[in-house]
Amino acid sequence: MKRTRFIAILFIALSCISMTGCCEKTKDEGKPAKYIFLFIGDGMGMGQVSVTESYLSYKAGKLGGEQVSFTQFPHLALCSTHSANRNITCSAAAGTAIACGAKTNNEHIGVDPEGKPLESIAYNLHDKGYNVGIMTSVPVNHATPAAFYGHNSSRYGYYDISKEIVASGFEFFGGSGFYNYRGKDGNEPAVDIYIEENGYDVCYGTEEFEQRAEDKGVVFIQESGRETDPENYVSDGAEVCDVRLSEMLEMGLEVLGDEEPFFIMCEGGTIDWAAHANKTMAVVMDVLEFDEAIKKALAFYKEHPDETLIVVTADHETGGVSIGEGKDWRPEFVDWALLEKHWIESGEKNVLEYEENEELNKKALIGWTSSHHTGARVPAFAIGKGAEKFAGIIDNTDIKGKILGE
After folding, report:
1. What is the DSSP code string of 187-214?
2. Claim: this prediction has a pTM higher than 0.85
3. Residue 5 lies in a domain
4. Which of 97, 336, 369, 390 could cross-link 58 (Cys pair, CB 3.0–4.6 Å)?
């Protein structure tokens, strides 16, 4: 009897210990990673990734097998991207879905379909003591980055969106410039003056960044974006940035540091612009530049593997690109030599008109179905703490909750 009673008590005790450990583990798993990197390749579907890896394999003298860094991540989900009012989303609605975890109408930034403000993951984490960095290869007030700090029923309210940088209180912003630098009609005060008067240090180029005020938030802008609207997007491979995205990410890490937790959203914005124009080599080069930045985050992850989460996704797919083109069966190789030759001979610029560029793609066996966004699902690759949540078919509104550990 005593032996039976002892065994029963021991069983209950062990069960309690087991349950306590389980509860503690569950509680820990519910917390977001200390260091969070969210990379968004604007317009980057699986087609853009596959085409880039095909080019890398060609350069390695193979038919396949070469990979960009993020396709080697252990976890992958596929995301639906429709907006609240369209099968095919725009970057504003998709950026808002990713940032805020809620569907909204096309052209809406950080607000629901009725125009009511939504709270982005950046604000959620900032309130919890995370430092926040928002950076992009395109203007800092463009749709995707704006979705993480702005609130506007029109993505084209660039001037007002820029002013919300101040209201956010986030520690670092980076981009190629400000659309509507002096307002839509050019009659408003320069927006960088407003931002500086309200506590930020706006740095144009690397020299000013190195001389930045240590006690202020930083807005880094490419030297070419000084005191003017940035040039309209360039999808011909021309060098329009004096700092690559990977270098901008390093700047963000320098400002944020690793003593406090941080959240970084880093956008490869020019992938979309090249895809709109169906310019294959420009897409490849933009994806590779994007991958350079991701490799910087991977290096950080290796130093903090138990505390870091990296997610690489896209807001939507653009162009419907594929390896293979034409109605007839053509068991041939993609002619990367032709595409690369044109790229080099044109001074690393793919400057053909659309119809001529279309013919170049046909000869090379690269297919494009559209010059606009498509409704194709996009990937979400993940590695690190909480990465296992990224699996199967999900919606882009699920990304926020998965990163937060919900």
Report:
1. -SPPHHHHHHHTTEEEEEHHHHHHT--T
2. yes
3. no
4. 336
